[in-house]
Each structure stands twice: as C-alpha cells, then as structure tokens.
Design brief:
By secondary structure, the chain is mainly alpha-helical. It has one domain (about 5-145): nmb1532 protein domain like (Four Helix Bundle (Hemerythrin (Met), subunit A), Up-down Bundle). It has five helices and no strands. α1 runs antiparallel to α4 (about 90-120), α2 (about 30-55) packs antiparallel against α3 (about 60-85) and α2 packs antiparallel against α5. The two termini are about 25 Å apart. The relative contact order is 0.16.
C-alpha cells in the first residue's frame, strides 16, 4: 500500500464518520463521531499539507490544484467547527452536515480523480518515496502516542 492508498483509506474513514453523524441522535451519540471526524480530518490534512502538497506545488501543472486543496482544508475545518457549535436541538445541524458532506466529497473527488493520479505521473520515485516514508513515520508516531 502506498501513501495515496493510505490517504484514500482516511477519506473512507471520514465518509464513515459523516454516515455515523447522519444516524446519530443528539448529545453524546453525536459528539463521538464528530470528535473523531475532527481528529481524522486534522491528521489527514496535516499529512497532506506537510508532506504531499509542498512536493506537488513545485509542478506548474499542480500548483492551482494544490492551492485549491489548501483552501478546501480550511473550509472543511470551518464547517466542522460550525457543526460542532450547533446546539443539540438545532434544526440547522442537518443542513450543516449536508454542507460538510458535500465539501468532503468534492475534496476527495478532486484528490482521488485528479491530484493523486497526476502526482504519480509528475513526481519522481525519489519524491514519492520521500512522501511515503514521511507519512509512514507520522502514522507510526501517532500510533505510539
């Protein structure tokens, strides 16, 4: 499994958390998947922002995609915070969850359909190997903590 497969697995996990939030009631039933989603998104974004995006920004063909994905991470963080700020009985929760889900789907689609495949074509073995090693080390460090 390469680093893009690891990132894709993280995408699937975030989608699962969204599904859990859709069926969760209020209070603690909603809080746990929301907290997990927040942690997963932050770790995933940190991996990409630290190890993937800086490498890919060096390629002219990728620069605009990467800028858009940086902005998308910021938007996802903001949407999660808005969702977390909804009172238990707030009817806007479903609307905000839908906005978050749509934003995650767009982000995931952009990465999996455009960025990851093009990165494999543009980046050399040395760069891709470095990304993989760094992501693996970050995951090991997180698991050890």
């Amino acid at each position: 499994m390469d680093h893009f497969d690891v990132l894709k697995n993280q995408h699937r996990s975030m989608r699962k958390r969204i599904d859990e939030l859709r069926v969760a009631g209020g209070g603690s039933a909603r809080q746990e998947p929301l907290d997990e989603l927040r942690v997963e998104l932050e770790f995933h974004a940190s991996l990409e922002e630290t190890y993937v995006y800086p490498v890919l920004e060096r390629f002219d063909d990728m620069r605009s995609w990467i800028r858009m994905l940086w902005e998308s991470h910021d938007e996802l963080r903001q949407l999660i915070e808005e969702l977390a700020g909804c009172p238990e009985d707030d009817a806007a929760f479903a609307t905000r969850l839908s906005r978050l889900s749509e934003a995650i789907e767009k982000h995931v689609g952009d990465e999996e359909m455009h960025v990851y495949p093009n990165a494999r074509l543009l980046a050399g073995d040395v760069e891709l190997g470095s990304i993989s090693r760094n992501i693996e080390a970050a995951i090991r460090k997180r698991q050890a903590a």
